[in-house]
Amino acid sequence: MVRIEGLTKTWPDNGVTACNAVDLEIRAGEVLALLGENGAGKSTLMGLLAGTIRADAGQVVLEGRVITPKDRVLDLGIALVPQHPQFSPDLTLWEHALVGDERALWLGPRARRRLIESLSATAAQWGFTLDWTLTGRQAGPLALQRATLTALFRRNPKVLILDEPTAALPGPEAEALLSAVAAWTKKEGTAVVFITHKLPEAMAWADRIAVMRSGKIEAVVTPAETSLEALGALLFPATATATVEPEEEPWVSPDPAAPVVFETRGTRADFTLRAGEVLGLTSLRGEGAEALEDELTGMSPLPEGCLHMDGRDVTHRDIADLRRLGLSYVPSDRLGRGSSPLSQLASNVIPYRVGQLARRGLLRRGSVRAYFHELKTRFGLAGEAGQRLVTLSGGNIQKLILAREMEHNPRVLILAEPSWGLDLEARRILYGLIRKSARQGTAVVLLTSEPLELFEVCTRIGALAGGRLRALKPTAEWTPESLGRVLLGLV
Amino acid sequence: MKPRSNPLTSGVGTLVALGLALILAVLLLAMLSPNPAGALRAFFWGPLSSGLAWGNLLNQGLLLTLTGLAASLAFGAGSFNLGGEGQTYTGGLAALAAALVLPVAWGPGGTLVALTAGIAAGMTLGGLSGWLKVRFDADEMITTFLLSASAVPLVDAVMTGPGIGAAESMLIQSRPAPEAFWLPGLLTPSNFHVGVLVALPLVVLFGILVNHTPWGYRLRLMGRNRDFARYAGISTGFYALVPLALSGGLHGLAGALGVLGTQHALVQGFSAGWGWNGIAVALIARTNPWAVVPAAFLLAFLDQASRTVVLQGQFPFQLSALFQAAILFFITARIVLPRFGDRRKA
């Protein structure tokens, strides 16, 4: 029904090739599950298919007809329900259902009632009820996704693409949705592609399962000819290679008798961290590791349990206190939180130092610049003190943030997604800095959504699934396969 | 995100904008005035032609320096104080009330107390908005504006009320303040007086505070990226409240100076535009205290020049406002637009 031929997309801002000459066939009457690790290129591929992203090369052929950039892909019958649909906060759900398909400028009260009734009937067909008078602001993400699905379904699509439709759904509702999807394709001869991280779901409801890795389709299998184990191995192969060459200096394992520096108790991810350790924590997207960034760093209150630093309870300390006690933090949002893009480089490295740099209450430009140059030499930073931060590349901005957070040998260093958007060379420098910091006695926590990264630098790895820490073991006791199984909830 | 142009070229840009604005001024005058040559002469020479004109220019320039400094302080910390008008007006009322109550024998000491009362009144209004922001996350743009908008009619009501209103005057104004508390005039009979000179040391003081102290560094960081400031452990509450309070205080001082130095009474609408024009000054000065003085004098000159043209009958009154608006448009478009562009992309 639809053939994807050689679709390729490289993102210009970070040079990542999200899809690399992908070929895939979608057949009439089938439910196709698309599996893949975070960043494997699933959402990009579906965006290319639905025409919301323009391909660098390749084409989509729908029922023998090549789709051109001029086509309105939705009118041709390919509809995409994104995981997080874009909604105007002020329009109601029924108004959103009309977007792109406005038949009248104004709907009278009766026509509106009829519209809402028919929308509700369509929604019921899919096994859910919705209050269509909620505005985008009032409706939760689930309602927004359902409203989008209902609205698109009314456009009589031939191919319906669902991006993680069940990520936020409780089990029975996910089942209801997927069985409705399956019934619809069989009855109408249409096709559904759904992206999921849940292997059992794919096994139960898909006619075929496509596995993506690093921008390529790795395999297309039917549930009958595979198993959960085999799928897990496809997703997280034992042969997965490290992205960076091993470091030159041998990795000294941390002293088991080193003092405990950082500890969480009674939280959803309890751990004890000794000086010199590098603890990696990961999960699939939406499975709990992202939220740890704010909770461990005092940016948002801990929902439960407490946080200890050097034996002191620091659960309710404010951010300034945590900084003083030696908690450094490299945020995932580098430009929004980790730096002031419009300020000079020098201003970006001194926030913890202004007190010491001032003489008799005055902060002299000379001493600020001297400090920047000292840091620049020590860490090999790019740029001049008076340059605005935005003029640096992503990798150099990250290096500057790392330098600022590491220069005073903090007690604890928390890094969130530190390698996002970095090229291999920048990653090598990053991992070197992390190791160096650990060798000097800092306790490091590395939060990442790229599980394989953990094998590079971590002494211990913890895996979260369903929002809680499921396993925490020394790196040597993990394999990429066993980690994948925990992340997928197979253990 | 595109890198910002460097300060030198953007400074040139401001000069270009100013040049364009002046060309527009000349064209407007030439087209709309029955006597173009006379109008042009009145416009460019009028504000500098006599001691009286100089006095008025200096007085207005220094007052705008104060209100511009006030607006800059808040803007620099990322708080938008749109209540300068009401803070100035209330400052004037507080100063007058103090002057009416204090024993005349206090002399210059009483003047100081009255000025302080003006500062305190403005500070209270500005600080209230700051507190609302810290406590309830209320948008200071809205609270400063609304508090100011409700303060103005209240002050109007009080100035004609019992104990303060002037019974026999045709104008809506209060009783005069005792002469003992008046600030000595300069270049009489202009509006100029010694009080407004305080603007200059204040510019130096705040210029150093904002640009060369840890306090100012944190304040500027708040203005540039509040999330980064919070992340770096800077007290976002303190740096939201204090700049707004200081901003209100400086506005209050401007109002108090207007009452004790020029009007010697509270006259309805005496602060016309000082608060709003302070915002224009801050925008032109890009919230840098040092640049506030030239920006304030530029606006003061434009205003005085337009007034001269109107007074000489070369121009209908409304055109003077149009004129200033056109010039401000050029200057602020040059300065404001790139700034908002950045914010969107950031």
Q: CATH superfamily assignment of the largest domain in chain A?
A: P-loop containing nucleotide triphosphate hydrolases
Specify the biggest β-sheet of chain B.
none
**Based on DSSP secondary structure assignment, what is the total number of beta strands of chain B?**
0
Oligomer: heterodimer
Q: What is the end-to-end distance of chain A?
A: 37 Å
Number of domains of chain A: 3
Annotation keywords:
heterodimer; A: 491 residues; Rossmann fold; 3 domains; six-stranded mixed sheet; B: 346 residues; 13 helices; disordered N terminus; disordered C terminus
Explained architecture:
The complex is a heterodimer of chains A (491) and B (346). In chain A, strand 17, helix 15 (424-439) and strand 18 (443-448) form a beta-alpha-beta unit. Chain A folds into 3 domains: 2-235, Rossmann fold (3-Layer(aba) Sandwich); 239-326 and 411-491, Rossmann fold (3-Layer(aba) Sandwich); 338-407, no CATH class. By secondary structure, chain A is an alpha/beta fold. Chain A has helices at residues 42-50, 73-76, 93-98, 109-125, 141-153, 171-188, 199-205, 228-235, 289-296, 319-325, 345-349, 354-357, 365-379, 394-406, 424-439, 454-457, 480-487, and strands spanning 2-10, 17-26, 31-36, 57-62, 65-66, 78-81, 159-163, 191-195, 208-213, 216-221, 260-265, 271-274, 278-282, 306-309, 312-313, 327-330, 412-416, 443-448, 460-465, 468-474. In chain A, helix 14 (394-406) runs parallel beside helix 15. In chain A, 41% of the residues are buried. In chain A, the strands form 4 sheets. Chain A has a 6-stranded mixed β-sheet, sandwiched between helices. With 346 residues, chain B is mostly helical. Chain B has a single domain (53-345), classed as ABC transporter involved in vitamin B12 uptake, BtuC (Orthogonal Bundle). Helix content of chain B is 72%, strand content 0%. Chain B contains 13 helices and no strands. Chain B has helices at 7-32, 36-45, 51-76, 84-101, 108-136, 140-159, 199-212, 214-224, 226-231, 238-263, 274-284, 289-311, 317-345. Residues 1-9 and 336-346 of chain B have low confidence and may be disordered. At the A-B interface, helix 10 and helix 12 of A face helix 8 and helix 9 of B.
